[in-house]
# Entry
Amino acid sequence: MLTSIIILGALLRFNNLTNNPPSLNIDEVAYGYSAYSILKTGKDENGQFMPIAFRSIGDYKSPVLIYLLVPSIALFGLNEFGVRFVTALFGVLSIPLIFLLIKTLTNDSKASFIGAALLAISPWHIYYSRFASDHLIGTFFLLLGFIFFYRLIQGFKDYLPAALFLAVSMYSYHSHRLFVPLFIGSTLVLNRKGIKPSSIKTFLIIIIMLILPLIFLTLFGPLNTRAQMVFLVQDIDYTRYVILDHIEKSGEYFLLIFFWIKRFLNYFQVDFLFFNGLNMTNSNILGLGVLHLFELPLLIFGIIHLIRKKFQFRILIILWILLGLIPASLTNNEQSAGRSLLILPALIMVISLGTIYFLQIIRNLTNLFVKTTILCLFTFLIITSLIHAFLVFSVYFPYQQGEAFMEGTKETVLYALENKDNYREIVFDPYRGIKAQNIVSIPYMYLLFYSKYDPAKFQSEKKENQDGAFKFDKFAIRRIDWREDRYQKGVLFIGSPWSLPEKDIKDSEILQKIYLSSGDLAFLIVSPK
Amino acid sequence: MEIVKVDKFLFFFNLCLISIHSLFIAFLIRTLYPIHLMGENLFYADLLAKPVVIPLWLAFIFSNINVVILSILSQFIWNKRQGLILPILYIFNPWSTYLTSLNSFYIYLTSLILTMIFGLILVKSDYRKIGSIVFVLGGVLLLYSSFVMFIMTPLIIMGVLILKLFNKNDIKNLSFWIILFSIPLFIAIFKNPVGWANIYRNEVNIYNGSGHLSDINNFQGQAQAVGFKFFSKIAENRYIYFVKYTSLKIIKNLTPSTYFTPQEKLANFSFSPPIFLGFLLPFLYGVYSLFKYSPAIKFFGVSLILIIPSLLSKQFVDLNRLVIFSFVIFYVISYGLIRLYQNKKLSQRIIFLLAVVLVIFQFFVTFSDIYLREYPRFERTFGINFEIR
# Structure
């Protein structure tokens, strides 16, 4: 049975992997090229030898996914499948792990199978399995580490794997760096009576040794910059609406506390959980929450069951959910499904228990009419939820969210690479957007990626970075001002209709138009004549 | 008279509450003036095409009447000391004070609902005559005052009947009197069907949000284009859409963060939470205890009808309309606080203390924020149009 669930999970994660999401996003391209660079030279694209933090576009990337991508890219090449294979694979591997977790905690096979099935069809998990995402890799190692950590608390001598996997999860994603220490600390304090001090001491020594470089980088190195960049005080809603751009300094930090609590409680909002948490569509109601709608009653039953039945692991699950949301709520996003993904295993656990409890209640119902009605309604809810999820994944998401995944950039880059020799310079405007020019894409990364640009050459060659323009080889990444640029003969311009207004360009100068799946015009490729 | 017995302490206590409540309202009016909510016409007057709007001074009086009725009701429900908590909660939390200062129509409706409850309790305590008069007066005024209440009042009475909260015959008699006194209202409705339809359109906006149907059509069109027409007809038809939309609205109106954080903005711009966050834990404990120990859970069930006006509004949650439900939330918090205080367990004592400390802290933070930033915040949101719709 578990095998069938795993096969179902694999199908949902690997099917049409290269085309859905419709394009590689900026992070995926950056991960892919960094891994390619490591594969070819042992250094990242900036020339750093085997770094722990990868300097990337505007931030520092966690190392685990990039190193995991190296064998995948060696095997499948630097392409969409090579980049997405690892996360999809770890997504599938998480299914037997959740089975193992629930089995270890409850010793209940039914609940374990239900948990595995729920993870296999979880929209939250499938979504993050289908593109290169460090959130999912981090959650995978957290799950693995938690199983061993729980066994350690139970008296098994699993301190080495527990420390190792929890440390790897901290290296995998930023949220885990705060969550894991908080979780370990709170669990040890709350379970201090039942734990063998010697095992815990060894565990703590190993994990501290393993994360020392990370602590150093976070406190004194570049990761500190990242933390400051995404911290709550930078939130637009907070600065513009709450403290009104520092109109009055007094009491700002007190307001920050309440603003943070508001953000924390936002993660329990029903629209995030069941209606549109994944932001896969443009509609609030016809979106997809991080959980299926049919899981709502099961979650409620799970909470009731957890409170009533006083499971030994109850406090661990509650801590996992509450502490797991702290890192996400401390950052400058209203709600981030990625940063909060780490609580998914705990939620699946509660929902599995809820399902068992729900089935018990149904079984004990004596009134056949009531029993049948409830079962029919619930089956209808499951069917419509699953059909809706299927349509969102296969139709609406690629149609409506192409821009978020930089759809069209690949086509522009391939055109530029094909016609490179015909022009003295190729200019990319990094600003794009259908409704406004509000998205900054990083075309040079796509150029490096799709041309499989020699990393050794890129590391060593001179890159001009002047007046906001970035130049290498024949390529220039800068804003296009068509009033002046229209006179530059022999140059290829690639930009959105905002920077290359169609009405001001002769038809003969437009070489190609690139559209999104939704039919909106995304790019124009133009050469002045 | 047990309930309305003149107790010196309670008299002065209520006087103190009214003074403090008035002070808070005055502070807010001074800080926020001339910001105000758009006035709502009384239903009956609207039908007669003679608009009458409740003025600010009357809203101020009704808010203080609410304090007194809540104080009397809580004395009836709990003992002398415990009964002090409910009215204190009402005046110290920003919700009602804020809306009173902005001249909310729903403060007046809250008074009428509380009057009806007070009347029922008098009837139950063998003060039949005066109780009946109070109940019928409250009910009739409610029907005459608001279209939404015209729909809700029969629902509340039905709920009370179905759950057998009060004597069946008493309720039937009282309902008869309410219907009898409402005959002029029914005549006005029959005489002015166009006015009725207009009022309906103004008051009931539940599905008026932009693009509901176009959303469904767009999604179905996209699915149809790739050959999934059948699937989209099953999972994304208008019935399922509106069931989902309504469920989302109901759940959002019952989510704690709506009440205890500024998630939903008071008067569409404020950063003050309707109720201080410190009361969240006593509230949750109150809900838990109500389910576990109290027969009052039935009243709680019926009171959920009071969220209907908010459900009928265009927004997901309308805190202005939802203020008529506020006393129920305060009741649950009071119950939770009382249970926490009575409990001798250390953990629950700690929760109680934490709640008190957090509330005091947030009280000062919120009021200083209102003083320093609420007016500029309003200007940033609405500019210089001082009437909030």
Chain A touches chain B at residues 240-244, 247-248, 250-251, 254-255, 258, 261-262, 265-266, 268-271, 275, 281, 283, 285-286, 293, 383-385, 387-388, 390-391, 394-396, 399 (CB under 8 Å). Chain A has a mean pLDDT of 90. Residues 406-526 of chain A form one domain. Chain A has 22 helices and eleven strands.
